[in-house]
Amino acid sequence: MGESPINLGRLIKNARLEAGLTQDNLATQVGVTPRYIMAIENENKYPSIQVLSKIICTLKISADTIFYPETQHTDREKEQLIHMIYMCDEREIKIAAATVKALLDAR
């Protein structure tokens, strides 16, 4: 991983707070204990890949934010948009691309 555990915990905590979730809320949605979330955020605990994947999905953050922090998006809305695109099927991606193209052409 490109970041130290302290930065990973801080990143997860910041994303959780931005999402308006408590440690209890996040733990429930991810399927772990609140103590486990606290250990990740404050005690340099590395989550398993399965738990990290659930955290990423629950907080709607890009995996790139964690694995490639040097290329992080500074705009949370853009990051969430990218995450939503990854969740789309092929037809929905074509619709999204056409919509974005229309927005840009209307400038």
Percentage of residues in strands? under 5%
N/C terminus separation: 40 Å
Give the name of the CATH superfamily of the largest domain: lambda repressor-like DNA-binding domains
How many strands, what sense, and barrel or not for the largest sheet?
none
Low-confidence stretches: 1-6
Helix and strand content put the structural class at mainly alpha
Count of the domains = 2
Order of helices and strands: HHHHHHH
Radius of gyration: 16 Å
- Mean pLDDT over all positions: 87
**CATH architectural name of the largest domain:** Orthogonal Bundle
Q: How many H/I helical runs?
A: 7
What is the general shape? elongated
Oligomer class: single chain
CATH class of the largest domain: Mainly Alpha
Please provide the count of β strands.
0
Named CATH topology of the largest domain? 434 Repressor (Amino-terminal Domain)
Fraction of helical residues: 55-70%
